[in-house]
User: Fold this.
Amino acid sequence: MKTLINDSIEDLEAAIKSNIDLQEKFKINPVDAIRQVEIRNPKDTDYWIYRIIVLMLGLAIIAIIAGLILLSVHSKEKPDSQLVTIFATISSGAIGALAGLLSPSPRK
Assistant:
């Protein structure tokens, strides 16, 4: 059975101190014992990180689109082209970041 730790030396030290079986394995063969330690990555176990990021990027995109629509409706003359370009750049960056987060990553 693998021992799960977070990605720090302190967590490895605490796991070795608290697990007598792991201590014995380290005394006999440290290389095999370290192979029995599995590092937990918070990005793999905490799905709320992705949910919050996707929600914020989606809200940013919607807010920018709504802002551009309001800007075009309420302005008596043609909206400032620099402002539209800035909003379009920010929203395209947010769309690219959202696509990068939601696309499947290759596994090892």
